[in-house]
Amino acid sequence: MIPGLPFKSRETISAVQEANFSRMMDLCFERHPFYRAKFKALGLSRGDIRSLEDIHLLPLVSKKEYASNPSAFSLETDGLEEEATIYWDVMHTTGTSGGRPTPFLSTTYDFYNTLTANQRALEIRHVNGNDIVANLCPMTLHPYGAYHRTIAACNVMKIPVVSPLPGRPSDYFHWSASLDEVVDTIARTKASILWGVTSYVRRILIRAEEVGADFSAVRLAFVTGEAVSEEMRRDLTERMRRTGRPDAWVSVSYAATEMQVGTVECCPGSGYHNPAPDHFFFEVVDPESHKPLPAGQRGLSVLTHLDRRGTVLLRYSMGDFAALTYEQCPHCGSWTDRFVGMPSRADDLVKVKGMLINPEVITDLLLADGKVGEFQIIIDRENANDILSSDRMRLLLDLKPDADPEAIAESVRVATGVRPIIEKVERLQIFDPDRTLKAKRFKDLR
């Protein structure tokens, strides 16, 4: 562990990454079932991979490949340091294999590294010793990093965390809380930071306004799990400032279970800082050739673990389009790498009535004037029983009384080329906290 590594010089960071990558490659050639077989099939020897400049010789690994045989991605740790031989916990990714989430194994060695990474992330986000965190991630049937690592992050910073436990993950045990109970818990405990999935944090803020809850201590929202456009950030910030402190702001993270931490903002729009460059090496690659792209150019985001002993992934495609910079952050002064611009899913675009549509464009339009509460975008067919019937787009909207549905429909038509059907729905439920961490904001039912 190197204290304050993200703020060290770029040369220092690169040297640490090279040293850790060399050790990681030694372990993968000797002890990693999947990569050992892959290297042999490709005719690669250890001497072929001399530094990170040679990383392009390694193949990209997809989520599907990992999910098909997750146990093959764990190191054989007999004979390594004791911390590497102890299984600490298993988290699960949201990608499924055979209908089940994919397990991600951490040893004690990995968990201790995760504490380091989370401490750095919270320091970048300006958390202080007086903060109280409301962990708004639900406790789920399969353990997910969002719920558990939020608690661990607060523990390593020695600050209080309260977990209201929204959702109902089991029919046999009922440690769950309703929406109003969650709002009351935040107000009662004077939580200063709301931490959760974007759409659920927004729902909490909407309800807090409706009931006049005392959120006067709330100064920060840490949101993750879903793309956050500038319109969504504005909407969240304005709601926070109406219910909480006038200087409240939103910090977005770009995260994955395979990291156990997020890349985070030091301030709005600063980019998503890698809090542990000694643990993670990121690339942005051409989606076709998989060759690394220059800094600032948008392509597929790829993750390589540099210092793990449980599940280890090399050149793992995260399934997103993003861009990287290695320049010093003008806001916090860190030299760690940053994703610039909000990463977006590689498969976000959908075709409706022959038009290629980005659902985020519609989301921004619906948030623009503050007259839409919850909303959902549905793509289906005019006749559900006829696969040849025409596509249609429906917008399920919880509207304020002065909202104009026709004007909304026209603005969407102009932006996308497809006129939606507007359906007014009061108290629209867009997520199922019993089963998932994320909102079902967009559904393609065709």
Describe the structure.
The protein is α/β, with parallel strands linked by helices. It has three domains: 5-112 and 270-345, 3-Layer(aba) Sandwich (Rossmann fold), CATH 3.40.50.12780; 126-264, Rossmann fold, CATH 3.40.50; 350-444, ANL, C-terminal domain (GMP Synthetase, Chain A, domain 3, 2-Layer Sandwich), CATH 3.30.300. 30% of the residues lie in helices and 25% in strands. The protein has eleven helices and 19 strands. It has helices at residues 10-31, 33-42, 63-68, 82-85, 108-124, 145-157, 179-189, 198-211, 230-243, 359-367, 405-416; strands at residues 87-97, 100-107, 133-135, 161-162, 193-197, 220-224, 249-256, 261-264, 272-273, 280-285, 299-305, 316-325, 338-345, 350-352, 355-357, 372-381, 391-399, 421-424, 442-444. It has a six-stranded mixed β-sheet with strand order 4-3-5-6-7-8, with helices on both faces. A five-stranded antiparallel β-sheet has the order 9-13-12-11-10. α7 (179-189) packs across α8 and α9 runs parallel beside α10 (359-367). The protein starts with 9 loop residues before the first helix and ends with a strand. The model has no long low-confidence stretch (mean pLDDT 91).
Write a brief structural summary:
The chain has helices at 10-31, 33-42, 63-68, 82-85, 108-124, 145-157, 179-189, 198-211, 230-243, 359-367, 405-416; strands spanning 87-97, 100-107, 133-135, 161-162, 193-197, 220-224, 249-256, 261-264, 272-273, 280-285, 299-305, 316-325, 338-345, 350-352, 355-357, 372-381, 391-399, 421-424, 442-444. The chain has 446 residues and is of the alpha/beta class.
